[in-house]
Amino acid sequence: MNNSPDKNNKDADGKMLVRQESFQSFSGPLPPPEILERFNSIVPGAAERIIKMAEDQFAHRVDLEKRVIKSDVERSKWGQILGFIISIFGLTVALFVSIKGQQWASSIIGGGTLASLVGVFMYGTKSRRKERESKSRSK
């Protein structure tokens, strides 16, 4: 490419032609007010419809986030209830086996039950800590 002025960059009178390009962008749910005004001049009421769409999208997102949080709380609650039932069952079986004179089997069942409970609590604490750290980094 040759950037030096030549006959292709001049008009019929020999004057130099200059071309200027500009680029404008925006981010977010709404365009700047100037663009909204232009939309309104082309289609009356378009700006109001665009703003309404952004409001509806925001309300939809908030509703989805509320549902996800409620679902997570329910799942966590049921996990705790079922975990408690399973652990009580495991410890009861260990106690019953111990009463029947099988201390080794009782130790294995009871120890396995307690080890799994400790593992679940440790995993839950670690995953919540990672989630909090990732949220604090994103802010």
UniProtKB/TrEMBL annotation:
Q: Does the UniProt entry include the keyword Transmembrane? A: yes
State if Transmembrane helix is listed as a keyword: yes
Q: Which organism is it from?
A: Candidatus Zambryskibacteria bacterium RIFCSPLOWO2_01_FULL_39_39
UniProt-listed Pfam families: DUF2335
Query: Keywords of this protein's UniProt record, alphabetized?
Result: Membrane, Transmembrane, Transmembrane helix
Q: What name is this protein filed under?
A: DUF2335 domain-containing protein
Q: Where are the transmembrane segments?
A: 81-99, 105-125
The record's section on InterPro entries has:
RP532 (IPR019284)
